[in-house]
Write a structure and sequence with these properties.
Length: 526
Amino acid sequence: MSKAFFSARVFTGSGDHPWAEAVLIEGNVIAAVGSNDHVRQKCNENTVYYDLPGRFITPGLVDSHCHLLSVGQTLRMVNLRDLDSLEACLHVISQAVENAKPGQWIVGRCWNHHYWREKREPNRHDLDKIAPNNPIVMIRVCEHVCWVNSKALEIARITADTPDPAGGQIDREPGDYSPSGIIRETRDILERYIPEPAPDEQKQAMLDAQELFLKNGITCVHTCESLKEYEVVAAVEKEGNLKMRIYHLLPPDDLAEFDRRFFSNQIDNPKLWHGHTKLFADGSLGACTAHLHQPYIGSKTNVGIACQTPEQLLENIEFSYRMGRSVAIHAIGDKALTESINAISKARQRVPGDRRDRIEHMMLYQSEDLDRVKELNLTASIQPIFVSTDWKVAKQLWGENRCWNAHAWRSIENAGIPTIFGSDAPIEPVNPLLGIQAAMTRQDQHGQPASGWHPEQKLTLEAALMGFFKNAAWISNSEDKFGAIVPGKWADLSIFDQDLTTVPVHGIKDVKVEMTIVDGEIVYQK
């Protein structure tokens, strides 16, 4: 069966013919694109017609950095997003405690002390007051910090004598060196004690996340998770319930086991495949663990946390290359980026090959490193929505002088560095229109700052849109299959109920998804 969509505003993403008004799908591929008359001539008696005046059609949008299973699991957790005080967070947590069984773990996420009235980080004593008997883990919005109570510390056997894990930090109380209840860059020392959901619950979490992404017009995600999460997705696919495309990034420790169990399953798989190793060079801005060349404002010594030594990073990159993978390195601070570039350059000399390496976030850089990123043909994996929550914090912690090179998307674009955009959900909401609006305005949800933060770094609508599909296909070794609305490509479309070229820029976030199409199938319709 074929489907034809007429009278819409179609952004094809093709340099030769970027705009059209109609698209024809035959089976699971694009058959024709152009004017209404041109496409109508290609239709037949079995074509289903959709007349869509005023609608906006793009190639299927790709979230190139998220955590798929975490999104579904977050829907079942205590939600502290956007709460403006410690008091408000404790109130929400206390409600979960009242409904919990004795000894049951209570897990939540998305607190952000930078926006609290109390203007301080929380501690275990705050939680002990409301939950002395239930272990509690509350994950900061950046996912790089845990806030826990004494019961959780007791179960995890974390005491004053527990040494800091490599690449992590257990904050201490003055005097007796007792854990304060804040743990940075080392969640696993706690999470290993939290009972895993049953297999059916994990599959349902994945399906819930899939539904949310499709509802927001996302046809494909690049998810950064472990082999355990890949197993869940593979099970959903085997049951015939995978409706979107998933490109999975794996940690280095999982590569050999993946190749033993799953490598043959991903050959020419149009819905689920893998090709990158995910590595960490540092932490996050809000947690003050992003690794910097110079200390954070207000500190003489804190330059963040390097999650790996330069030697360890080089070793992991070389191992990934030998295993046939490219690398995706989380690097938020400028020193983390420098060390990532150095390690990639050395590893490529030692292990030559075709590499499609990517830097995740690339939020802060030194000017001289921009040329090196270009020379190595690294892709910048960017989350534009971060600027709406980060700009005040960046000014406070990094200082205005450094911030000329923070979230500097136009400079990255002008340097000829390819970009891919994402949400980092569940850290930020799934909705790609929030990222598109942030890329164009560089403002927060209150429209501040009035002219945008460093407005010279704003992107056009076209550039913001293409960040969500243009290079996502190439970086995942699928450039011949998707990434534009041209004949022969996969029939993945995102259709919005308003023309984004005529909507006022501050109203883009309020536009709704009319329809999401993956592989020629309408998988979501308003």
